[in-house]
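Example record for the data management plan.
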Amino acid sequence: MPIAGLARKLHIQDMNAMTRPDPSRPRILFVDDSRLMRACATRILGDDFDLVLAESAEQAWELLQGDSQIEALFSDLHMTGKSGFDLLEQVRSAQRSQLADLPVVLITGEEDGEKRRKHALALGATDFISKPFKASELMARARAYAQTSQSSRRLRLLEEAHHVDPATGLGNRRYCEERLLQAMSFAHRHGQALVLMHLRLDGLGALLDDLGETLAARALQRIGETLARRVRREDTVFRSEDETFSFLLPATDAEGARKLQQRFLPDLEDLGLCPHNESLAVEAGFIIQTPPKPNGRDVSDILDEGLSGRATPVAEPVGEDAQVPDIEQVLRMIERGEQERIRSFLPTLERRLEPLLALIGEGGRS
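Corresponding structural encoding:
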């Protein structure tokens, strides 16, 4: 076959491997700037694996970022442009854990001695295979690492399912407890503030029952999606009870949490709870909780303390039109530990008390 015809055939094989994923076979990425080596890999692995071919580390990295089904990476160490070392470093430093943990087998040449192999191991290489490789050797490694990757993927999915509330896609109660314990320890060690903010949607359960199974499932999914979008990157949101959603806010104090409240409560229409523009009997409120220092207490009890607190109305009226409590009401609220509810009324209460305070002052001078 003429050289041009061979090059065209190999190019077609490369493109077919990249554009025709086969979910029934493990997917492997093979990277080499030599067409001949890519052809050898296709001949050896093509029948047993869904083989993806790349001719450079740059192209391989693009494929890895866009394809979460790749189970293992085989890369030549020496290539034009970025090397196999460079690609390995990119993989191991990836933010996505599935990619960072990907098995990486480097293909070395005769010129690569023990020093280079030690350097590759230090960077996180999983294994090596030497050129020219034997068909049985390449096949054995491909099968072994694809199987390992699939097992890790299944375990990761099980762990994720263990942490997820299936109705909303948010973290569940168990995950909230795990993250809370970690956050409490971190905040204590580094002297940082930490707040748990609980969003109560009283009446949500009854509303979902009225909507019916299909609309209720859609509403809960919308709630999860909306709340997850509104949190900051460093925050985490959980469904801690059927009608309660908890936000873990690191490096945030109670005052900061109060400022963030409106961000965490979009209107009911945005949450997908109003399919026919009906008036909904759902009362929303926030509870702001400052977790204690880690002291051996059961984290579940700590969380329950916050969830059982009296919710502060989401939108307390402020200004001249506010329903400001009188002095007797304020004193009773303080006795019940509801100081947070009083804060928005303090300026108005102070103005109302000015005459009394002035009179008290005059009495002290007489």
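Summary line stored alongside the record: DSSP finds 15 helices and ten strands in the chain.
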